[in-house]
Each structure stands twice: as C-alpha cells, then as structure tokens.
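FYI - complex with FE2/S2 (inorganic) cluster, inputs then prediction.
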Amino acid sequence: MSEEKKLFKVTIDNITVEVEPGTTILQAARKIGGEVVPPAMCYYTSLKGSGGKCRTCLVRVAAGSTADPRPMPKLVASCRTNVMDGMVVESMTNPAVLDARKAVVEFLLINHPLDCPVCDQAGECDLQDLSYEHGREGTRYEFKRRTFERHDLGPYIQLHMTRCILCFRCVFAADQLTNKRQHGILDRGDHSEIATYIEKSLDNDFIGNVIDVCPVGALTDRTFRFKNRVWFTKPLDAHRDCPKCSGKVRLWMRGDEVLRVTARKDQWGEVEEYICNECRFEKKKASDWIIEGPTKVNRHSVISAGHYEGVVKPPEFLPEVMGGRKPKLVFDIHELSDVNRPEVDLSQLPGPATNKTFNGDPHSVGQNVTDVKIGIGPNEKGTDSTNPNTP
Ligand code: SF4
Ligand code: FES
C-alpha cells in the first residue's frame, strides 16, 4: 500500500493552500493565483537552476513554520524559498514588500533604455508590465546609462545588450535545450554582459527559444523585427507534423500572412513546449500549418486590443432612425487600406516595409532605424538607445 504523502499547509496573504513538500513559495502562490502571485523576471519553471537573480519576487515570511513560528529576518526570494508546514507569507498585503518591489524595478531600469516605442518586445514585455504594476513614476538615477552595440547572433537572432536585465534565462535555455551553448554572461558586477564566445553565431536547432524566454527585448527575432506591432497581429494556435519538436506553435498573423511563429505560453508567460528553429523561422506560410483557432488572450494584455471574442455588440439604431435605409458609404476603407495587399508579402521581406513597398515596389525594404551601424545615421555610437542621456 502506498503511503499517503503529507502535504504542507501554507498561508499566503491570508489564503491557505496545501502543497507538496519541496514546493517554492512562488509555486504555492501560483496555485492560489490572482494578485497574490509575486512577479518573476528570472525564474522559469522549465529551466533548471533559474531564479534567484532579479529579486522581483520578494515576499515576507511572517512565520517560518508551525514548529518554528519566528518570522524570517529579511524579505526572501519566493522563487528560491521552499514552503514549510504552517508557514505564513505576506505578498501584496505587506507595504514593505510592495516598497521593496518598487526599489527592485527602479534598479532593473537603471540601465534599461526605455525605448518601448521602437522595441519589438513592447506589448509583451515583462519589464514593461512590471514597471506599470510595481514601479515608481520616476527615477533617481542621474548617471549615464551603459549602452552596447547590437550584435547579430547568427541569421535569426539579434542581441540588444542595452536592454538585457541579466536574468540568465537565455543561458539556461541554451544550456538545457541545445547541444552546445555558445553564449553566456561574461565579466562581473556592472561590467557583466551577455556575449558569445568570439562572436560565434547561435545556430543550434532549438536556440530560437532564447527569444521566447527573454523577458525583455534583448533577444529579438530578426525575421520579425520591425514588421509590425504585436497588438496589430492576431495570435492563432496551430500545429504541424514536425520530426524535431511537438510542432505546437502560436502564429502571429496580419491578414493572411504569418508574420511570426513562437512557442505557446501559459498564463505565467512561460513556454509550454519548446519549438525548433525550422518551425519558428522557416514555416512562414499559413499553408504550412493546421490552424486550431484563435489563442485565448488575457484581457489584461495589450495584445487583446482589437480582439473582441465573446463581446455582445450593442444594437444598431441608424437604420431604425433612417426609416430602414442603410447609411450611404462614402468609400470602402478596405479598398483603400494597405493591409492585405496581395502583392505585398510582409513576412517574406528581409526588412521593414516602407512607403515604397506599398507604392509600386512590393519588394523594397527600409533600414531598421536601430540597425544603423557605427558612424552612420543619427546615433553616432551605433547604440539603439533613445534616451537623451546616452550618447
Ligand atoms: S538576454 Fe534576455 S534572457 Fe538573456 S539574460 Fe538578458 S534579459 Fe535575460
Ligand atoms: S524571479 Fe525570483 S529572484 Fe527573479
């Protein structure tokens, strides 16, 4: 007869939940869900060793356990602290925790360029969400922010080290998903940076997943960069028969075009099943995929803007007041709109579309403003920062 496992009772923000021994406070909070769950920028459930780097998940342990109910002397990282039976934790209910989170966000933003208007991650950036929900309005930092040149890491990925928050997720992902990790964090302290060993390109079969696990816009998909804002695209769940991975993906469509392919993420923003480079970068036609249906997008996300699933439309009164007549159309917006022009294939263009692309030259592409190389263009140092304090 199998022995019944003893569960630990843990109370987080006055809500008690039973979890298995070895569960972290963060995972216990996720079991409860809602506001109680601390934010996490470096922890990633499926990446072994992740967590403990960013300190955004700080909570207060008001009572260590039933056996030893003393509080813990300092705030602890909930992603790295295991629960004990009878533990009492304060997350949203303790002002000191909220204050510490604000300080952590301020710290993470010290070197971050705040270039959301031109960043491909805008709209699905964990740091953007974190600073809205837990950050301060201003910064007290008066020094120059550190900036880096951009690096193309192989044919598919671009690194914007200026935006990196050194969470280590991409390093763990490369270590655990690919045969050979070729990048890591070099140097120490405020000199630390993500770098490849002698600029080796990252071309391993599963390396594209570093883009999905990166919580900010430091690692971006070169096949999607500047093609569209994420909230203008429609996410669809789709799959294909892939010999390398599960083939279960999310397609980001604009009209009939597949602009981007990513792995599917769960409610915590973590990848459900990692996908291979072929699915991610080379299958950019709707006909390559079996479409399952629209992705359920959290209303909280900006990506849900313009997606009106399940919404009840208000009744139309215009025909009623016009005695049954329909209003006369001045013009049909779809005839004039540049979206869905059959001759313009945004997903096939090697760069961003320009005015020319839509006016007779469907293959012409512009230059990404942040791809300006050193000494050319408005940003002399070649950095991508739009912060006036940076060179
Ligand atoms: S590049 Fe992204 S995933 Fe990698 S350490 Fe920096 S922020 Fe984290
Ligand atoms: S998520 Fe816990 S320290 Fe980063």
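The pocket of iron/sulfur cluster (ligand 1) is lined by residues 164-170, 194, 213-216, 218-219 (CB under 6 Å). The mean pLDDT is 85.
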